[in-house]
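User: Can you predict the 3D structure for this chain?
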Amino acid sequence: MKARLAHRHRTLGLDHPDSLAVANNLAHVLRRRGRFEQARRLDEDTFRRRREVLGADHASTLSSANNLVVDLAAVGAHDRARRLAEDTLARRRRVLGDSHPDTLSSANNLAHVLRLQGEYEEARRLDDDTLRRREDILGENHPDTMASANNLIIDLLELGDSERIRRLEERMGRSEPGDQ
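Assistant: Here is the predicted structure, written as C-alpha cells:
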C-alpha cells in the first residue's frame, strides 16, 4: 500500500484525488493495525489536502474528517476530536440530511468522543437519535444499527439506567423477558 501511494504521488501528484484516496485507504489499514499515530498523521494530511482541493463540504473531505476524528480520539486528543466531530456532523447534516448513513456515522463518532469526555447524557441523546434513525433507514438487524444499540447501552450503563437497558436488550433480541 505504501508503494502504491508513493507511485500515485510520483505519477499523479500529492493532491490528485486518486492519490488522496490511496492515502485514505492506507490510513485505514494503519488504524486497523492499531497504529493510530501514524494513521492520524496521514489522515491529517489527507484531510487538509482534500479540503484545499475539493472543498470543505465535499463528501471525500467529510469522510477524511470523520476518519481523523477516530484517530484523534484514539491518541487521546479528545477536545480536538470533539471540535472536528461537531463540525463534521453539522456539515454532513447540512449537505446530506439528518438521516443519511454518513451523517449517522458522524453522529456515532461524536457520541463516542462525548463518552470519552464523560458527557454520558449528551452521548445518550445523540446515540438514541442515531439508533432510531438507523433502525428506520437500515433496519433493526443491520450491523450499524446493532452498533448503535451497543453504544446506547454503554451510555445507559454509565447513567445507571438498568431498566432501559433491559428493555433495549429485549427489543434487540439479546435477552429473554424475565432474565436478570
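The chain has nine helices and no strands. Residues 106 and 172 are 23 Å apart (CA to CA).
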